[in-house]
Amino acid sequence: MKLLREENREDDIKSIYDAYFAFAAMWAYGGSLDEENKPSFSKNWMQNSKTKFPEGGMCFDYFFDPLQLKWEHWDTRVTQFDPDFDGLYQNLVVPTAETTRQRFLLDIHVQAGRGILYVGSAGTGKTTIMKDYFSDVNPDHVQNAAINFNNYTDSKALQLVVESKVDKMGGKKYGAPPNTKLIYFMDDLNMPFVDKYGTQSPICLVRQILDHRILFDRDHLEEQKLLDDSVMFTACMNPKSGSFYVDPRLSRHFTLVSCLTTEKAILKSIYMPILTNHLSTFVKGVQDLGPAIVSATTVVFWQVAT
Questions:
Q1: Domains of the chain
Q2: pTM value?
């Protein structure tokens, strides 16, 4: 940007700011929409935006490259699948346009200290997105802790997890190690038991932390523990299970992003590299069956999922 100002390229600077605004606004207003409303939002956004989007796909498929001064598809940022992965199969993540753009969104939210709440039905990759992000962060700068909520999770159990991960900074202050972010990932946020007053005690505790940055010592209530800004929360939930309502006083602290049923093209981009690598030692006739197997499996999945 400094170089553009030195070269007096005011029109290019304006186009960059317009594109940044369009990118931020489209995710802020459209990122939470479902399958039925996202396409129509995208169509209107691309038609009425001051900055020109490429043809094809939805606006969420693109990011603005300030060096090229144009919108690029997220596919251009996808890294290659590593066929030599030797970990557990359930930990295998094939990079796709979806994981790439969600990793970017998580990066800018971590920098801003604001959490993301992923909402989607089972099998839409909410937990996978978070695990993929945490697997690639530098532990010297970002630490994480997963909290799996269920019907029996209460505020006391949650507080024990939170307190076990923070360091005492001095006095009443607690937080992550210096120059480090500590991210708590709450899986199945809406699963805790709803009491007769319509509240969920773990959610009330998280809201208290985000509102006031305070934890109370349960044995000595007059003692407070103050959490600094290095501590943040992210979460995911399935709206079709557990409580169908999450306190808006909590959800207002998060950017809501919907996770939709995986597109056919992305499904193929996930399973083709895996199957191709698996069939690489077979005879050519068997290797040639790979695309047909993946296509047939994708069709069956979509028939079941939709």
A1: 1-77 (no CATH), 111-261 (3.40.50.300), 264-305 (no CATH)
A2: 0.88
